[in-house]
Write a structure and sequence with these properties.
This protein is an alpha/beta fold and 153 residues long. It contains 5 helices and 5 strands. It has a 5-stranded parallel β-sheet with strand order 2-1-3-4-5, sandwiched between helices. Helix 2 packs parallel to helix 3. The protein is globular, with a radius of gyration of 17 Å. The termini are far apart. The relative contact order is 0.18. The N terminus is likely disordered.
Length: 153
């Protein structure tokens, strides 16, 4: 990532998932518990466009997308991404969001060194935080104010 000298780059995540509620939950959870910025796209085509415009530290792609499979999107970006971002030699690591029926297909994808794991849909916070633990820095302190039950007199 290109930033001004002395300014640390905030990792940027590209999320491609057709479901708006799932995208929102994943985006909000990542931004609350990890130090990162998240761009999200409802389709593979939009995710591809975003990946060519900006540099990312991590891809989160749903295997089923409306216009192309998430693994196809990743293969296309693995070739195109380094060509459009000077100084970048490989596309970022990828985590796939999978439906229960995609488990066998995901096993084949795990052979790729860039594949860092999977998360089942619907999203689960503990799995999301576990799979991103080594890829994104943890946000220190509380992301939200502590919960205090309402005071009843």
């Amino acid at each position: 990532m290109t930033t001004a000298p002395g300014v640390p780059a905030v990792p940027r995540v590209l999320l491609a998932e057709a479901s708006l509620p799932y995208r929102r939950v994943i985006r909000e959870a990542l931004m609350a518990f990890r130090i990162c910025e998240v761009d999200d796209a409802p389709s593979g085509e939009r995710a591809f466009e975003l990946a060519l415009q900006r540099e990312y530290s991590l891809f989160l792609f749903s295997l089923p997308l409306p216009d192309m499979a998430g693994d196809m999107l990743d293969r296309l970006l693995s070739k195109a991404y380094p060509m459009v971002h000077p100084g970048v030699h490989a596309a970022p690591p990828v985590i796939f969001l999978i439906q229960p029926g995609d488990a066998l297909r995901f096993q084949e994808l795990q052979r790729d060194v860039r594949v860092r794991g999977s998360m089942p849909l619907p999203p689960k916070l503990d799995v999301l935080l576990s799979v991103t633990a080594k890829l994104l820095p943890e946000r220190q302190g509380l992301a939200f104010p502590p919960f205090s039950p309402p005071h009843v007199s």
